[in-house]
Design goal:
By secondary structure, the chain is of the alpha+beta class. The protein is built from six helices and seven strands; from the N terminus they run αβαβββββααααβ. α3 packs antiparallel against α4. The protein is elongated, with a radius of gyration of 25 Å.
């Protein structure tokens, strides 16, 4: 009868499952991408610290104002732009930056949407995996890897599929496309998972 007594094994497997937490999303040690994720998830109004925010146009090609020689603000109370002289352009100027007192970034709840779309399947994966771990057919670490891979892939899919709210026209022109959560690829590329052991 002793060979059928698996209670001690179940207790040990249960402990191993209980000692680990799965963390999925943007790496917690990347403060910049954490900020990007929070701003996109919840939205934000960004106010200028001084007079204006400088919003780049496509012509700025990723440069800062300090990196563009000959940059100036045309005369006139309503000229909220920074330009460079360009004889081939209309009015002899090319707009490099638009000046704004504030910009509103609307919420694009990619984490919330991923959870709403997939939490039932994630729960089923946990339940099925738990039984397999208890039967000795799967290790707790393998279950966590399966969950981490599945959840992170679902979050990435949500980022790729999310097209509203649209980018502002200035942003879409600068990027060359209107995928609100995609620009350099850093956000979607950062989505991963890790384990955190409970003390």
């Amino acid at each position: 009868m002793a060979s059928f007594n698996h209670i001690s094994e179940w207790v040990e497997r249960s402990k191993r499952l209980n000692q680990m937490d799965l963390i999925v999303g943007v790496p917690i040690d990347d403060s910049f991408l954490q900020m990007v994720a929070r701003v996109n998830e919840h939205g934000m109004v960004i106010h200028a610290k001084k007079s204006f925010l400088t919003i780049p146009t496509a012509a700025a090609k990723g440069r800062k104002p300090s990196e563009i020689p000959g940059l100036f603000r045309p005369k006139g109370a309503h000229n909220h732009v920074l330009v460079v002289a360009d004889k081939s352009a209309p009015y002899g100027m090319t707009i490099m930056f638009v000046l704004k007192e504030s910009v509103r970034i609307p919420p694009r709840r990619f984490l919330n949407i991923a959870f709403e779309r997939n939490h039932d399947e994630w729960g089923q994966l946990v339940a099925d995996g738990f039984l397999r771990v208890m039967d000795g057919k799967l290790s707790p670490e393998s279950l966590e890897n399966q969950l981490g891979r599945r959840i992170s892939n679902d979050i990435k899919k949500t980022i790729r599929d999310l097209h509203t709210p649209h980018n502002a026209s200035l942003t879409a022109d600068r990027k060359g496309f209107d995928d609100p959560l995609q620009d350099t690829g850093k956000l979607i590329g950062s989505i991963t998972w890790t384990r955190e052991r409970k003390l």
